[in-house]
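Quick log. Single chain, no ligands specified.
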Amino acid sequence: MLIRLLLLETTGCHLCEQALAIVNQCWLEDHDLFIENIDIAEFPEWQAQYATRIPVLYHPETETDLGWPFDPADVKAFIEALRHD
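-> predicted structure:
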């Protein structure tokens, strides 16, 4: 089952770079993921909700998210929970 996640981030954010590395590691281990990077600076609706929380992994279908800080185990648990919903 393909899981689509958004990585909400912005340019020049060192925490976002760390989150991207973690997400990419998880993607390499699980090819049933589709991860789209979203620069919230381009979307006022995302800025209002997530500007102080980025980086955030967001699942648009369930409108659930995983906020920073997270590690690979947290990301894998988030994905597994989505698979069982």
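The chain has one domain: 3-83.
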